[in-house]
Amino acid sequence: MNRWLDRCCKGIEMLIAGALAVMVVLVFGNVVLRYGFNSGITVSEEVSRWLFIWVTFLGAVVALKEHGHLGVDMVVQKLPPAGKKICLALGHVVMIYIVWLLFQGSVAQAKINWDVTAPVTGASMAVVYASGIVFSVMAFFILALDLWRLLSGQLSDAELVMVQESEEAVALQQILGTANDTDPVAANAGARGARP
Questions:
Q1: Is 177 within 8 Å of 140 (Cβ atoms)?
Q2: From first to last of its 196 residues, what are the pLDDT tens digits of the chain?
């Protein structure tokens, strides 16, 4: 299951990279054409805006899978393992409920805007709200899988806190994790340096 999820997230990352490339070409090309040739790409602004929305939601899926979202872990870190498990389970139940609300709202908005066409491309505005539907379905699957792993005892004590308080802590953890995988001497030095 995790392998399938990893492959799915790699595919999403490739989609995000492609969308960013299209956005750069559209926006930069539009600027060059406008100032250099008194022309422009008509659909540039509209398509770039839609791609930005999709990149945001798809990126949130990848971040959720990698537990890369920021949060406050100051209190949870100090709890015993049982307290951490309770907090993690409650947090996941609340997130699943919020994802369900997002799914309902996105479906309702997609239905309302199905026949509404965009002014430039003429495409259905439901495309915008479909990003919320895709995100909520994939987020539900990831959260349910994490909750199942917690309830079935497959999570170690180190995995019970699934958020980081700062981006610097995440970057440091990734660096130390890479050092642990490749260089045992660097890993030991990093571990000694991290002790108070």
A1: no
A2: 678 877 888 888 899 999 999 998 888 888 888 787 877 777 778 888 999 999 999 999 998 888 777 777 777 777 788 888 888 888 889 999 999 999 999 999 999 988 888 887 778 888 999 999 999 999 999 999 988 888 888 777 666 666 666 666 667 777 877 655 554 444 444 444 444 4
Q: For residue 79, how many C-alpha atoms fall within 13 Å in the half-sphere facing its CB?
A: 16
Q: Is 161 left (phi over 0), alpha (psi -120 to 50) or beta?
A: beta
DSSP-assigned letters across all residues of 12-48: HHHHHHHHHHHHHHHHHHHHHHHHHHS---TTHHHHH
Phi, psi at residue 117, to the nearest 5°? -100, 145
Written as six digits, the tokens of 52 are 């930005």
CA dist., res. 82 & res. 160, Å (int): 10
Report how far residue 47's alpha carbon sits from residue 19's, in angstroms, rounded to the nearest whole number: 10
Greatest pairwise CA separation for the chain in angstroms: 66
Compute how many other C-beta atoms are within 10 angstroms of the C-beta atom of residue 109.
17
User: What's the gap between Cα 53 and its chain centre?
Assistant: 12
Nearest to 68 by CA among 156, 196, 174: 174
> Which residue pairs from 168-171 have beta carbons closer than 8 angstroms and sit at least 24 positions apart in sequence?
170/68, 170/70
